[in-house]
Structure formats: C-alpha cells, structure tokens
Amino acid sequence: MNIRVIVVTIAMLYGSLVVNAQNGWQQKVKSELPLMGHRNWIVIVDSAYPLQSSPGVETIDTDADHLAVLDYVLNELRNSKHVRPLVHTDKELQFVPESEAPGVTRFREELKTHLGGQTADAELHQFLIDRLGETGKSFHVLILKTRMVIPYTSVFLQLDCKYWSAESEAKLREAMKAAGQ
Predict the structure, then answer these.
(1) Are 83 and 167 in contact (CB under 8 A)?
(2) pLDDT digits (tens, 9 = 90+) for 134-151
(3) pLDDT tens digits for 49-102?
(4) How far is CA 111 from CA 69, 71, 102, 108, in A?
(5) Domains in the chain, ordered, with CATH?
(6) Using one digit for the tens of pLDDT, what is the confidence trace for 8-64?
(7) CA distance 51 to 71
(8) pLDDT grade for 181, boundaries at 50, 70 and 90
(9) What whole-number distance in Å separates Cα of residue 158 and Cα of residue 17?
(10) What is the secondary structure of the chain as a DSSP string?
(11) Contact by Cβ (8 Å): 122, 90
C-alpha cells in the first residue's frame, strides 16, 4: 500500500472521530434539554475548568470552539418551549488584562455579540462553582468543556421556566398568602 494512501486514510479516520466527538456533545444537549427544567444548568467552560464531583454534575469535553458551543446551546434554548437561560459570567473577566491573557479583549466584545442582547450578570467565579456543586446535589448540571485557553471565560446558563415568569410566581404567592395559604 502506498504511504500517501495510508496518510489520507488516517487523516480521514481522525476527521471522522473529531466530527463524532462534536456530534456527541451536540446530541447530548439535544437529548437532555427536553428533560431539563428550571433549576438545571448548562455551562460552557474553558479548558482549565475543574472536573466537579457532585453527583448531578456531568462534564463533557466538546473539543470545540468556546463561542461555537455557546451559540449552539443558546440556539437550542431559543427553540425550546419550556426553558430560557439566565446568563451568569465570571466577574473576574472584566479585570483580566490583555497583557496577561492575549485575546481577552476580543473575547469580551465577541461574547456580547454572541449573547445577542441577553443580559448577563457577573458573579465571582468561585461563587458560581460552589453554586453548581450545591445544585448538583439535587439537580442536573451539564458542563461543556471547550478548547478555550483564556481564563474566566465561563458562561453559566441557569435554566428558568420560559412560560412562567418570576412576576407570575410572585403574584401567585401573594394570592396564596392573601387566601391564608
């Protein structure tokens, strides 16, 4: 067999494995999203994010671009009938200097564009990690690890009910309280 044929065959097999790995995480999002509801989380994280050990926390290595993973998940959520994301980012991201993490300035700008006007609050990274650990004791958290190598670029998507707002819930609780419940 010709060496060129062997190299081409190996390259094709490798390409197929990468595509299958990427399809794997996408399929995971598609299959789990209908099961997820308010109190579940989907988190897109950089490559150094720690593997958490709470029973409900599942981590998948996407081997994909960070913003591409975010776009995919946000699109799936937009098409969902039952959940919407509350977006949280690392507060530290605002303070990471370009000199220490080349590309961070561009990432901050691109993140705003990719969020498409969705508001995001900024919380301390450790607070968010701790919150996921606690949440993972009772609820499912899906962490999608990317190839990102800029610190504090995690995007935490806390799922909330799409068809029942916080205002509706507050009105319900007030009505129950007024009725002595």
Answers:
(1) no
(2) 999 999 999 999 999 999
(3) 999 999 999 999 999 999 999 999 999 999 999 999 999 999 999 999 999 999
(4) 12, 10, 15, 5
(5) 3-178 (3.40.1650.10)
(6) 445 444 443 444 455 799 999 999 999 999 999 999 999 999 999 999 999 999 999
(7) 23
(8) confident
(9) 31
(10) --HHHHHHHHHHHHHHHHHHHHHHHHHHHHHHGGG--TT-EEEEE-TT-----STTEEEEE--S-HHHHHHHHHHHHHT-SSEEEEEEEEGGGGG--TTTSTTHHHHHHHHHHHHTT--EEEE-HHHHHHHHHHHTTTS-EEEEE-S--STT--EEEEEEESSS-HHHHHHHHHHHHHTT-
(11) yes
Place of tokens 């200097």: 97
d(CA 85, CA 118): 9
Structure pTM?
A: 0.85
- Do 35 and 124 touch, CB atoms closer than 8 A? no
Nearest partner of 36 among 155, 160, 166, 134, judged by Cα: 160
Q: Which two tokens stand for residue 143?
A: 């962490």
Question: 51-67 burial, b if ≥16 CB within 10 A, otherwise e?
Answer: ebeeebbebeebbbebb
Are 69 and 147 in contact by the 8 Å Cβ rule? The answer is no
122 strand-pairing partners: 89
